[in-house]
Amino acid sequence: MAFYKGLSEKSKIKTSEARSMAFYKGLSEKSKIKTSEARSMAFYKALNEKSKVHGDNFKNL
To answer: What is the distance between the alpha carbons of residues 30 and 37, in angstroms, rounded to a whole number?
Structure first.
């Protein structure tokens, strides 16, 4: 009985560890997506700003 209890305790710990790992992985994946989204947004904004500047230069010429 003690052996079985020990096993079930271990398996409980493992499943909760697996859950927390999956949760953590999910979080890190989400944060990766957010940072890449932010990067692409910043890149797009920078492109927009550049094109605006060039557009003004063309108008002034």
So the answer is: 10
